[in-house]
Amino acid sequence: MSDKHDPRVLFAAERTLLAWNRTSISLMAFGFVVERFGLFLEIVGRDEMRVFQRHISFFVGISFVLLSAFISFYSIWQHSRSLKMLRPGDIPKGYNLIAGMLVNGVIGLLGIAVSVYLAHGFV
User: 93 Cβ partners below 8 Å, 6+ apart?
Assistant: First the structure.
């Protein structure tokens, strides 16, 4: 490896963090839609299938939302490990290293909040 300072490694790690952020948001939205689709099926479905369909869609939807929250928090941990491997010269002066991780943390907390909201509506 060269002794030259190369910020491309940092920016590649940032892009990876943001890719996990997009994946997390997509899974959260999909889980919310799956959970709410079960409510729709309960409203328009037959009586013998209502409860069964509602339970399946609830647990699958909540699983997706909680998976998205886990991915958000895990990506923060993984990104911080990547940052520890960088040399100080690889990071441009004044560059904010915390912003991307903060966004992922907020997304993770929102995922937990959506899970609580959906669970409260299910009970």
Answer: none
CA distances from 86 to 4, 5, 13, 20, 36 (A): 12, 10, 10, 20, 44
Residue 95, SS3? coil
CB 79 within 8 A of CB 100: yes
pTM equals 0.84
Looking from the CA of 40 toward its CB, the CA atoms found within 13 Å total 6
Mean pLDDT by 10 residues, the chain (123 residues): 72 94 96 86 68 80 96 96 89 90 96 93 74
Q: Give the phi and the psi of residue 113 in degrees, each rounded to 5.
A: -65, -40
